[in-house]
Amino acid sequence: MKKIRKIAILTSGGDAPGMNSFIRAAARTAIANGIQVVGIEEGYAGLLAGKFRDLSNPTSVSNILTEAGTVLYSARCEEFKDPKYQELAAYICRSNNIDGMIVCGGDGTFMGATKLSALGIPTVAVPGTIDADVTSTDYTIGFDTAMNTVIEMVDNLRATCESHARCNVVEVMGRNAGHIAVRTGIAVGASAVAIPEVPFDEEEAIEKIKTQRLNGKRGIIVIVSEGLPGYAEKLAKKIEEETGITTRFCVLAHVQRGGCPSLEDRLTASEMGAAAVERLIAGKSNVVICKNDGKICDVDIMKALTLDKLYKGKLTEEEIAAIPPEDKAWMDERCAVLKARTEEYYRLANLIR
Q: Which residue range forms the structural domain that includes residue 131?
């Protein structure tokens, strides 16, 4: 097993609060083990451009815990899907004596990691996305802070809803997943929550809003996931038409990616950053660091990506049949757990609205 003397860290895809905690923990864990550390600015695009920053001094990552975003910046890199650019990236790593890579981001970032691993650059991935849509892990960096941001902003909206006896339909982020929507919907006392994973009974929701108004409820909040494109605005119009309640439509958008990282994001990001370095030192590669049932673990990246596609219905019957039986059993169990968890949150949201 080759000794790890120098590692590189990068963040890719959408930024997420807590990424700086990950960078700090990974860098300092490496330094504590006598390993040189460089940060790569602007993700895989920065790797191809050779944008390296020395992080081998512990002070290089001082005072970044409270900052949102990522001090290493991020960027999309469509070129990295091309094998010739993947080979160029591996060559750049070898030319700079990089013995291992740690990358933080979502599924696109993981795909880049597995390509580098296949080209001989040991790589470990860490899930960083506010959407919490990485199926192999219970938790992704940025999720908790994003939800807290939604709660704060919707609480502010509720004040004006109460004052004017209005309804506000709020679209929250989450990509194609409704995790942010359903959990914040419960937390803000939404009268209705619409997510892509569970069929939404529009007429029943509108009748509930009518009943709430008759019972004296003034401020009404509805939460809709962006995984239902364009639906929030349409729903706002229909609520106003059918109830007579003045209804406004609000998109919180990218403000949800900002904000001072919460304790949960700082803590989990630190655990994952340290674990990623320790996995490299132990000779592991092509794995994603996960947190399941409250414990840090690792999962093969290709296995994680296949699970993700299975859960999201993106595999053909032939691809599903090709999954080894042992892996398929694990994936089926994981999908069932996640589906049941989402459905229970949705049930609770409707029960106590």
A: 6-142+261-301
Q: 182 to each of 14, 15, 169, 189, how far by Cα in Å?
A: 21, 22, 14, 11
How far is 20 from 26, CA to CA, in rounded Å? 10
User: Which one is catalytic: 131, 144, 265, 298?
Assistant: 131
pLDDT of the chain along its 353 residues, tens only?
Answer: 678 999 999 999 999 999 999 999 999 999 999 999 999 999 999 999 999 999 999 899 999 999 999 999 998 889 999 999 999 999 999 999 999 999 999 989 999 999 999 999 999 999 999 999 999 999 999 999 999 999 999 999 999 999 999 999 999 999 999 999 999 999 999 999 999 999 999 999 999 999 999 999 999 999 999 999 999 999 999 999 999 999 999 999 999 999 999 999 999 999 999 999 999 999 999 999 999 999 999 999 999 999 999 999 999 999 999 999 999 999 999 999 999 999 999 999 999 98
Let me know whether 137 and 10 are in one domain.
yes
Does 290 map to a domain? yes
The verdict on whether 131 is a catalytic residue reads yes
Helix or strand or coil: residue 31? helix
Cβ-count burial of 42 within 10 angstroms (0-12 exposed, 13-18 middle, 19+ buried)? buried
Q: Kindly state whether residues 272 and 132 are assigned to the same domain.
A: yes
pTM listed for this prediction: 0.95
**Same domain membership, residue 175 and residue 48:** no
